[in-house]
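Schema walk-through. Below, the input block comes first and the output block second. Nothing else is stored per chain. Lengths vary across the set, and this one has 325 residues.
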Amino acid sequence: MRTPPAEAWILTGGWSLWSGFVMGQWRAQFDAQVSFANGGGLRTEEFRLDIPGPEISDDDLAVLFVRHLGLLMVAEVRISAKTIIEEPHKGGRGVAVEEAGSDRRLVELSHVISDGMSTLPGWPAPRISDWLTFAASRANYAPGTEFHVARIDMIANTGTYLDTPAHRWAGGDDLAGVSLSRLADLPGVVVRVPAGTRAVDRLMLAPYEVAGCAVLLHTGWDVHFGTERYGAPEAPYLTGDAAQALADAGAALVGIDSINIDDMSPAAGGVRPAHSTLLAAGIPVVEHLTGLDALPPSGFRFTAAPPRVAGMGTFPVRAFALVTL
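--- output ---
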């Protein structure tokens, strides 16, 4: 049976499967005879398949063919009548090409941790040093082989970091206990806080659907990171009522680009209602975010996953967002 070159009907035992999608530059047209290890066979004529370049061996083409169709228990594939055609890809599992019209970008949302940097004014700075230098390692390995191993001494609240329930509540989930479902690939929502606003309250959150989302409070205070002003009394924060609203609405994670999610001014008297409410509800908190201005209001995925360290309630994260346009 002959078919139009742009399509392919696969025939065996009275059934058929049509193949054809869209993607690339070079395609192979060929006939194939397939034998299965558990008996039976399959034959195609003038099948067209995306290939990565203008040349391909019969063996490599057979592998792409089997992968594209998802065939199991294949014993042998015989390729014949092979020709290479320059035409746009139709799509397939064998050749990975970015789909037309898709635009995915990663947005960095964490501060760089460097030797001597300041996160919280007055708190110890990280110290980064060599534990094993390239030069010292040469005695341990074959000629021409060398490695570097660094050492970092820091408190857990350094850079952009995650607070788990164990940070506030004895017996709460620590870094090893918080589920990845609370930390990675979360649908994200950005709450834009007007310039000069200190208290992010319940009313400011009212327009947003936050259930199951990473709610990121964009205050713009990150421009002061690393300076004395970063810890000033006027730093923005989330009110206790707003934290309760987020907990009641089922937020998965809450982040802020300020020095603390709670009010740190002397007038607050050391009370931490946002931490207390969110962490009691099992909602992780990410503080000291940056770059939230680069995110759309929604339609992105957020990740801020720390290492699984038992017995610790906070730790730096590489926070980032995947934006698909």
